[in-house]
Predict the 3D structure of the following.
Amino acid sequence: MPRGCSIKQNVTISLDRQTIRKAKIVAARRETSISGLLAQQLEILVGEEEAYERAERQAVELLDKGFHLGGAAPACREELHER
C-alpha cells in the first residue's frame, strides 16, 4: 500500500445529548462533521503521544551515552591525599 494511503474503519462512541448538540455547533462553525472533528483531534493526540515517546527515547539514549562535562581525569587516591 502506498505511503499516506490508509484504510478507514468506523468507530462507535456514546455521548450524552448535550455534548452531541454542542459538538454539532462546533463542527458547523468549522465546516465539518462531528466525525471529522473527532478524527482530527484523535490524530493530533496520537501525533503528540508519538512525539513525546520519540523525545523520551532520545533523552534516555543521551543519558545512557553520558555527557563529558570537561575537567581532567579523576586523580588517584594518593594524589588526593598528598599535602
